[in-house]
Protein: COBRA-like protein
Organism: Hordeum vulgare subsp. vulgare
Amino acid sequence: MELPNSMLLALFLAITCSVAAAYDPLDPTGNITIKWDIQSWTPDGYVAMVAMNNYQQYRQIMAPGWTLGWSWAKKEVIWSIVGAQATEQGDCSKFKGGIPHCCKHTPSVVDLLPGVPYNQQIANCCRGGVVSAYGQDPAGALSAFQVSVGLAGTTNKTVKLPKNFTLMGPGLGYTCGPATVVPSTVYWSADHRRKTQALMTWTVTCTYSQQLASRYPTCCVSFSSFYNSTIVPCARCACGCGAHKSTGGRGGKSHSDGCIAGDSKRALTPGVNTPKKDGAQLLQCTNHMCPIRVHWHVKLNYKDYWRAKIAVTNFNYRMNYTQWTLVAQHPNLNNVTEVFSFQYKPLLPYGNINDTGMFYGLKLYNDLLMEAGPFGNVQSEVLMRKDDATFTFGQGWAFPRKIYFNGDECKMPPPDSYPYLPNSAPPRSSIITAAASTCLVLLLLLLAA
């Protein structure tokens, strides 16, 4: 039976959109995998180690950190947690003796803050929910806690897997699949002469979608070059003006109260930099109204090399970006010679195609991007070797194709607005013709002499 064309089109769009919503072409295998390892049985349940592995190359979980939630399959309770805590205890009135840590059917668990007592800690815990990107810091891309579950099964056949997993990292954007039983995790002893294994293991995979996280982009890109006096700014309302709409005043002074002019006294008042519980932003008034602007400047042109300057500016008064990442896609990144004041790591999402790289700050130097103000920017320069077969400054070639900041794709300027080369230089054929004519004149003069 053939389906009507309208139904086929709807089916195609549904499949395409569902796949694209959580697929990053520059990090096709990136995800967060949550693994539950049952370590021992208890009289009414089990003790499990829960590990959260961030396999995303350039997207981390920033402060205030992750929140992991799920629904119990039966009437399970959490007797105790080491290395984390449930945000609510729930109704535990039916327990007469020991009171569980959490009796909610849908618990929400958060990481502990640094500096908690040692008897509440476990390996890879207690960072305030901050998890590094795997491509930037593999050792910091793991967070873990131990949980004791009661009123559950006490064998592999009677344990029921939790359902409806949710992950806030720290806001929206992650979608988690169902828990799946996998081969038990194997552990090696310290001397690597004995191995043990978990009694039961299941995993949950969570993927990120920028469309779910934010209605608008969270950053924008501007361009400039040494060969053109035009500066291409971020597009107007690139990150959505919304309540921050301007009435057209100069310098942002006529914006609504949702943003602060750069020279306003309000920016210096106490409490401006205090984060809000709902994560509400307080931006410096700009035409683009983005928290982050990335500026790419083509700075110098040498015989065999060329040099670009990258500047990242934070316009959010309430946000410090710790261990930030900047990803650029550019065809000449396969010939990076030197990067100044930033760390650089090539990304190879498609094997041998080396056109994508990640920039990030040097530890304890510029890995913290401060909130809006005089220190709210970081800068670097990158030196690249020219490829004689493909290199040109024309047609916007010297500018990146895509820019990501902290894993979110930034709004690029329209391609037809890129700074262009002036048309003052004569064509190559004209140069050859002129040279030939000069040689002919000199030859005639010699013969005449």
In short: The radius of gyration is 28 Å. The chain has a mean pLDDT of 86. The first strand starts at residue 32 and ends at 42. The chain has three helices and 28 strands.
